Amino acid sequence: MTVLDKSTSAGLDPAAVRKVERADRRAQLFAVVREAMAQCGFPAEGYRFKVVALDADGWRYLVLVDLAPALEASDADPGPVQGLVAVAAKMRAGIVVDGVYWRPAAAEPGADAPAAAG
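RESULT FIELD:
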């Protein structure tokens, strides 16, 4: 389901229509990622994520997940997340998810990176 019905888009600026459709696909992908993370045992407060469009129209994405330090040793399994996200995004909105990338979040938001040995 899209926010903008194709039958009502006649006479509208094509760029505006594309922008609304892209925003709709992005919102659908956000929902897919949240559902997949919950299904795999990740509590909502234990991660943050971003989606990065790989094309101008928003049909291909990467998902970047930052895990909270407490989740690094938890029973939550990141293994099936990419498959769940890829399949659900394709089925719901025709979106291709090329990858889900993980990284541990910094323990403190203002913490400095370790100094390089030199």
